[in-house]
Structures are given as C-alpha cells and as structure tokens.
Amino acid sequence: xxxxxxxxxxxxxxxxxxxxxxxxxxxxxxxxxxxxxxxxxxxxxxxxxxxxxxxxxxxxxxxxxxxxxxxxxxxxxxxxxxxxxxxxxxxxxxxxxxxxxxxxxxxxxxxxxxxxxxxxxxxxxxxxxxxxxxxxxxxxxxxxxxxxxxxxxxxxxxxxxxxxxxxxxxxxxxxxxxxxxxxxxxxxxxxxxxxxxxxxxxxxxxxxxxxxxxxxxxxxxxxxxxxxxxxxxxxxxxxxxxxxxxxxxxxxxxxxxxxxxxxxxxxxxxxxxxxxxxxxxxxxxxxxxxxxxxxxxxxxxxxxxx
Length: 306
What we know:
The protein has 306 residues and is an alpha/beta fold. The protein contains seven helices and 15 strands.
C-alpha cells in the first residue's frame, strides 16, 4: 500500500520503521530542523533522521499548507498515517489519500484528546494507559476507532518511560490496522464515553505543590518528567527535580520542609515525604541531591516552595 507518513518526535519512529518493512512509504512529512542544545545547532527531527537512514524521501514542513498539500497529493498516496506530527491535517489534504488518514494516539480514546495524553493521564493518577488508532477527522482526536491497546505501566514510570512502551506497542497496532485497511477488513467504531482533554504542558505544570499528598505530588513528577520538568523553589531559586520516589516508610515531614539523609533529600508533603535523589539547580548541571544539599549554607529550616 502506498503510504505517506507524518511524524516528528522519537515516539513516532517505531511506527515509521515498522511500516517501512510492510508497505511503500512514498514520503515522510516532519517538522523542520530545530535548534537544540546550548549552541542551538540545527538538528533534524528523530523522524527525519530515521527516514534518511531508511532511504525515504522527506518533506519538511512547519505546517501542512498549500505547498505541502500539493507535494503530498502529487505522490498519490492510498493512505496517510500520522503519529505526533505537531500540526493539523485539514481539507483538501485530509481527503487526498484514497483511504484518508489514520492517527496513532497515545490514549484510550475518548480519554485525553490533545497534545499531551500520556503526561496528563499520569498526572491524573491513571493506572492504565493505552494507544488508539482512529480515522482522522477535522475535530480534535474525535474520529472512529479502528483498534485500541491497553497497557499497565509501572507505578514509578515517568512519561518518557511510558511513552517508549506505548510507542513500541502502538507501532504494532498501527501496522495491524494498515494491513486491515489494505485488505479491506478494517472496521472502525465510534468513540464511547465522555471525552477528556490533554492540552500541551507548560512550565507551570511542572511546579510541585508540597501541600498535596505524596501520591499526587509523585503523579505530577512522573507526568512532567522529563518535559517540561518537575521543579520547586528554594529561597527564591528554581530547583529542578530529576529523580524522586515516594518514601512511604519514612517518618512524616512537614510539607515543604527539606531533611537531608545519607542517600536522599526527604521533602515533606501532606502525607509521606518524597525522597529526591537527583536535582539540577538553576544555571548548573545535574547533580546528586545530597551533594547539592551539602553545598547549601543554611540547611536548618530550608524549605521547598520558598
């Protein structure tokens, strides 16, 4: 089957690689190269890098405008497949492939429609995550669903770790749907249930509220790690929390109070404290949390969120 594939981040790469072994990918559409790192070096997206390794033609487009639409339509694809491209597919491109477009979305639709489904699900404390392959329609993530797959993630998994698993499982799920569309056996069903929304995260979403119970604080930590990053303030300075885990066996600590131990920092919540093992102070590199603590002059009474 002649496919056009649209995607940008690493989470889209497993699907691209899997489909490239089964079908004829006539073009890979991805976002333009972006400046990364402190030196702001222009770097191809993970999907662009994978496509070039596979010898597939790449169309770099910040949005699917008239020019991108014309280039894609000229290739006469039978089906479009999109995985986290980062832009909307509108008419006439939406109807250009014979079978339209399908979308791999990392949630159990209609739950968590939007840009950050895995992150929002973890922040909300969801124990089950999943992937859905659905028919793309003009409304946000609202099309009929061809297939779903549920996964139970580890209770300590971060958004990055959960997304790696979902990307692998989702690649197989998408391949199954594409094969079914190709042989005429695919069937899609309307979404069932009340939709929830998953808007893109901002820096504010990463701020930890130590007045909440430990499970809520840790759920937010998981959902915003590694991006936009969990953080707090200590004496007015931003401190990024890179590694943490609940310390259920520890004695309660007043919310926000920091207690140093030999192996971690215990930061109090409304229930059990959180054990923080790795941090990144503002303007500095990542470091062991205990080493950072030892470098503080006034450790007595030092508080997170201050």
